[in-house]
Amino acid sequence: MDRTADVLVVGSGIAGLTFALKVAARARSVVLVTKKERAASSTNFARGGIAAVLGSDDGFRYHVQDTLVAGAGLCHPRPVEALVREGPARFAELMEWGTAFDRGEGGSLSLGREGGHSRRRIAHVGDHTGRAIETALLNAVSAEANIEVLEDHIAVDLLVTPDVAGTPVCRGAAVLDHRSGEVGRVYARFTMLATGGCGQVYLHTTNPEIATGDGIAMAFRAGARVANMEFIQFHPTALHPTEDPAFLISEALRGEGAVLRTRDGTSFMERYHALGSLAPRDVVARAIDREMRDRGEDHVVLDVSPIRPEVLRSRFPEAVQGCLDRGIDPESGIPVVPAAHYVCGGVLTDSTGHTSVAGLYATGEVACSGVHGANRLASNSLLEAVVFADRAARQVSRRLETSGRGPSDPGAGVPAPAPGNGEPDLEGITTARAELRRLMWEGVGIVRSGERMEEAEAGVASLATAEEVRWGECRWTPEGVELRNLLHVAELILRCARRRRESRGLHYVVDHPHRDNEGYLSDTVVSRGDGFPW
Ligand code: SIN
Fold this sequence. Notes:
- The chain is α/β, with parallel strands linked by helices.
- It is 36% helix and 17% strand.
- The chain has helices at residues 14-23, 60-70, 77-96, 129-142, 214-221, 252-255, 281-295, 309-315, 317-325, 380-403, 426-443, 450-473, 478-499, 517-520; strands at residues 3-10, 30-33, 50-51, 111-112, 122-123, 147-150, 153-162, 168-177, 183-193, 226-227, 232-239, 259-261, 300-303, 334-343, 346-348, 360-362, 367-368, 525-526.
- The strands form four sheets. Strands 1, 2, 6, 7, 8, 9 and 16 form a seven-stranded mixed sheet that branches. It has a four-stranded mixed sheet with strand order 17-15-10-18, covered by helices on one side. It has a four-stranded antiparallel sheet with strand order 11-14-13-12, covered by helices on one side.
- Strand 7 (153-162) and strand 8 form a beta hairpin.
- Helix 1 (14-23) runs parallel beside helix 4, helix 2 (60-70) crosses helix 3 (77-96) and helix 5 crosses helix 13 (478-499).
- The longest helix has 24 residues, at 380-403.
- The radius of gyration is 22 Å and the shape is globular.
- The two termini are 28 Å apart.
């Protein structure tokens, strides 16, 4: 069934919910589509916390500096300033919406530390911060009469048509209702993509199965510019053996003193970085990868003995229980490996979350707002989501005031989406997804080479060609929609990675092991004009 609204939000994590709550104060109607149940988002999987300048020994300049250092020369200073300076106010709103962050003696906020932070500034709720925030935001959203949440609806493609001057404008999205199999359209004046990341493009990932890069792929197909997709952050400590998704062992354990060791008990991180086990994530993930390869071992060990047992249990209940549930005694050492965790690139936006397509916004992990550069500072992602959701909501609210609410002439000139009639090949889709994830893990993982990337590119292209045929002929299914998006995102990652012939931040290529500021001190920006076959 078709719908019209002032604002369409795609995604129900921290970015989408915050934006919806804020814009609902001005918009008459907000439709929020989410592809599973509303609580299924990457936010739920965010264990560590939210970074902000909250401690008495901290200051904006330190948080800015730490963010810029982690970003390896590619952060954009203005959005970083906005992130840091507006952070404490946005953090206070999360508390007002009902997130009860942990407090220490005397009632002051308990602030943790993670890799790359020069101060304690990570506010948390045990080691399940994302879930606590998500729950509070969902409660707040259910109290808003003008936000309609459509669960089990996956956005398939954005609806883009030219305005009178010929400029392409986003007018909503085509959505597939899983339960009925019906394809409908949501027309809106403004569309916000808050679909999270794309970790599922890799064999091992901490991201939930919904993290299939939908927003990035849709925006790119709709003509939006995408940037920096080569910068994929691998979290150093996923529980070994990895499940799907991999169980994340928060970096905050290392912030409290836990130490990485090889299986024979040797501490190794001091050989790689002065900050040892608390070095920036890119350094730690590569060091673990190197140690495992050199020793022919399939994991390293996180030694938690420096943390007092009662602190371990009270501060990290999820990690402790997760280990115990799998027959691991955490106090004897936690087996860990790196896994894909976060994409620092995404849909290119300005400092209000606006993309290069009129009427289309993006915020949270789906976006490339300029704050992460070549490597995201730990726990900056929840902060980015709330700061830029707020900025986007303020801009959209202003535009609703000036241009009037309600969609103008919905559907005029918008082509109807046209799936085929054939029976979907679900087995083929599952096989292709597994093959894609293997290709990406081997071809464009923690340590890259030109040759392996080239092989992966050929493999992905052949899977994409087969999928294109299936897409044109068969009925659409959520599995098919996700596979198409994963394939497109894989091509974007490979295209960006092959363009950057240097090593910087999260992108490490053995053929070009050094930073090249002369040639590459800029974002890798791709758009449809760059010869993509789709
Ligand atoms: C963690 O707790 O280690 C993850 C936090 C993040 O990715 O920022």
